């Protein structure tokens, strides 16, 4: 029960941020950045209907179809997130100012807030319905990748908004919002890049591995590999370190083998010994 309460609190915080991004920046500036919220924004200006009510009305048939095609796997958190977002958008709108009419600022700040909000919703295992549910339903009919379907659906909404508002600029600003939102969603779920993965190709892997253990008290993983150009059999070392250890590891590697070939890659999350533990929140649907 405690885990469920924690998850509902996380979904609630995400819903609040998402609603603020919509009410403060996107809806007042006619930026329909894809999804059900974008369609609802178009309907708001065409028919003068509340955005939240339109979102809820659009999501009801999606949920019915989702249950029919996908079963009840979406659970309580998804229903809660969908209804809560619709209510929050309409309840807060009359009391919030419009901070800017600059479309670039609105698209950027709106994208940031909505991205952070949806990232939290997804991180705590909820959804807000919308095009992610629509894409999952369409996939059962077409078999096309969900990411591609989301892109097509959101692109269609942006195109419709540009035609409705007779403004190519609004459509372009909406695209900026979509890209910012997607980036923030990934960042919230994956975290900031706080570590580096070293892929080390060397003729002296055992010595480098021993030096890593001794010098940094870090481990390493080794696996066999073969160079395509030379055909030579070698071993590749993988070692993950914190940012503060990057220079020290470079010194260790090149102190052992000045001819080593090293690839550095960003790591957003590391779970396990020497880093952080994964805390499971439970999988109940409530």
TrEMBL record:
Checking Pfam families in the record gives: DUF2179, YitT_membrane
Q: Which InterPro entries does the record match to this protein?
A: DUF2179, N-reg_PII/ATP_PRibTrfase_C, UPF0750_membrane, YitT
Membrane topology classification: Multi-pass membrane protein
Q: Tell me where on the tree of life, at the top rank, the source sits.
A: Bacteria
Tell where it localizes: Cell membrane
Principal subcellular localisation of the protein: membrane
Q: What is this protein called?
A: Uncharacterized conserved protein
Q: Which organism is it from?
A: Pelotomaculum thermopropionicum (strain DSM 13744 / JCM 10971 / SI)
